[in-house]
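Meet my pick.
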Amino acid sequence: MKKISYILVLLITLVACKSKKEVAEAVEVKVPIWVSSRPNNGFKYIGVGVAEKGKGGNYQMDAKKNALYDLSSEIKVNISSNSVLYTVQNNNNFNENFNSLINLSNTDNIEGYQLVDSYENEKQYWIYYQLDKQEYANQKAQKKQQIISKASNLISLSFNDENNKDFSSCLKKRIQAFGVLTPYLSEEIVFDSKLTNGIKTVFDLTAVIQQQLQSITLVAKKEMPILKPYQQTYAPLIYSLELKSKTPLQNFPFVVTSDEEKIKVNEKTTTNSNGELQVKVNYVEPINQTAAFALSPDISSLMGSDSLGRAGITVLKQFIQTPSLKVQARVNNITIFVTATEKNLGKPTGLNLVEAIIGQKFNGQEVQIVSKPDEADYIIESIAETKEDISSDILDANYKIKLAALVISLQLKNNVTKEVIYKTQVSEVYGYANSLEKAGMNAYSNPKLNTKLSEALFFLKRKILVY
């Protein structure tokens, strides 16, 4: 009986082992041939992509992207001899970015591809797509014609804007038309000139855009704007722009750049409804010469968030030039006229000590002292006067010494507006002597005069200059 039981256990064990082996063989997946050897099909575009599982993220989506990029790379871009890119290539200015742009657009626009197979192991995921070449060619031709029709419509509408003197809207539509055509710049593109007001090719379109930008002109100013260094705020520099038709250039954006490093301006500005453009100045160092600014049409800002237009701007700039307009402003020193009265007990001193200290503190690279008040931006008025100090009687009674106090009133006035913008007083400067007159004169020679007056002039100067 024991022998029979032993035989039964042995048979069950053998059967179990055989079942496990059969299951393992059934689970094992054979590696497809297309994983190790790339398929080749004369009627199909092939795309094979792989992604590592251990790198995180969605490895299936990564493999799909790689497969579609591989598929698109099989679609060779043949540059037509009548295309825009062919012309650029022949001019030795061909940029590899154009090829990248075309490949990316191919990847984004591929339709009709089919999943053939997929395979995965513990480390990798593989996917295999194919696309019928004839079907792709038919889809591309149909889509190209739709794009050309869309561009033609935009060009036609741009001429309506031109007739209505809407410069900005007109230019935007033409840039949009170029933008939608970007994926086909390697191919010949021909418009129905009856629908596009005589524009037949992309070359014609870029030429019209160029001509439109070159039609912007600057209205001559009667007087050159003046800038002063180190001001807290600056009134904007205003220039007027118009078209060759003498129509004001309305609501059009520009980029402003300064040729002078010592002048800082806002880079972005826009004309108003009257064609006036404001250049906002932020900072000016003394240069005492004429400074130039460049006003460049800002077609990127013109398009704003418009995806159609912005898609083509980078490429469009390879075919057109955005002309810059030169404007100027004069940077002059701040001019100051100083009027100083110096008296000792009501009589002129003839010393001009206070005026000399003021001139010393202000005359420099950014400020010029002028001799005529009508030439000045600011006027500094100084009145210095001595008088007997209240303590003089006590000193005289005890020591036979007189004490004189010097008081200086300072006033800063804007000579254009006549507004008094700062007032202060200098005091606590004294002179001693055995007579009041000598005491007053000694007050003017007191070293404390220079110190006290310099402190007051420091704050006064900050009303004129901001470093």
About this structure: Residues 133-163 form the longest helix (31 residues). Confidence is low (pLDDT under 50) at residues 20-26.
